[in-house]
Amino acid sequence: MKFAIKEVKSPINHALITATNTGSKPCRIYRYPALRLSENSQSETARLGPSQPQAVVTLDRGATAYAGLITASVDRNSQNKVTTSSIGLSLHGPDAGDSSTENGVDVTVPGGSLYVEDDNAQVTFWQDNVSDALAW
Residue 27 sits in which domain range? Predict the structure, then answer.
């Protein structure tokens, strides 16, 4: 898998996370990305429950899954503001509560910085298209 993150212009305070299957066989990507937004993060970023798709996203070779990251509240009113140059990302396994956090990767932010609010950030479930990932 190859992961990337980029800030988007619309909607505001959003970033797009991508996971591309670089393997030779189809694979499934479960639930949502487990994120660590900064070195000071005390827990995994909250998931946005209503974004759960009807089915698990299956990625053919070369296909990409998408997750939206709400980086901040609209008024940017937070106790835990940070600008980060990379985000820790791990994948969940097929069973509830199963997270492969020991196999996480650091995903570099293009341009070197992304403003995030640990206490207001939320991540969507993996989606099979960009529109659904950024609809929240």
Answer: 2-133
